[in-house]
Specification:
This protein has one helix at about 1-35; strands spanning about 40, 65-75, 80-90, 105-110, 110-115. The chain is an alpha+beta fold. It has one domain (about 1-115). Strands 1, 2, 3, 4 and 5 form a 5-stranded antiparallel sheet that branches. The chain is flat and about 60 Å long.
Length: about 120
């Protein structure tokens, strides 16, 4: 049993390291793209950006919602906005006897939206 536990921990550590390296490479690639296209790049979480596009139902799901890796500006005489998006869905509770089933799951996706979409708000 202890060997199985050690193997699981080692696999989890390897996955965490791989995820961190992949995220860093993505940020570096997006920064390079932003510089090439003369766009602004903001890698930090932006908790208010989704409010501008409230009519997009995916942006209103779950909790802990935020955009990150935001590219914005003008590209080929058009406003441009692209970002990665994160939200969490709480664990499902089936019965009172089962208090928790796993941890909250996080979802990520990368929408590309036109900043002047019919939101009723100015960007």
């Amino acid at each position: 049993m202890p060997v199985f536990f050690v193997v699981v921990v080692v696999i989890a550590v390897i996955c965490a390291i791989y995820g961190a390296i992949a995220a860093r490479k993505r940020r570096e690639s997006l920064l390079e793209l932003a510089q090439r296209l003369n766009l602004k790049f903001a890698p930090e979480p932006d908790y208010g950006l989704a409010e501008r596009f409230g009519f997009l139902k995916k942006l209103a799901q779950g909790d802990n919602r935020y955009a990150y890796n935001v590219l914005s500006g003008t590209c080929q005489n058009n406003d441009a906005l692209a970002f990665d998006y994160h939200y969490q869905v709480p664990p499902m509770i089936k019965t009172a006897a089962i208090r928790r089933i796993g941890e909250a799951s996080a979802s990520r996706f990368a929408p590309i939206v036109h900043p002047k979409m019919n939101t009723g708000k100015e960007p």
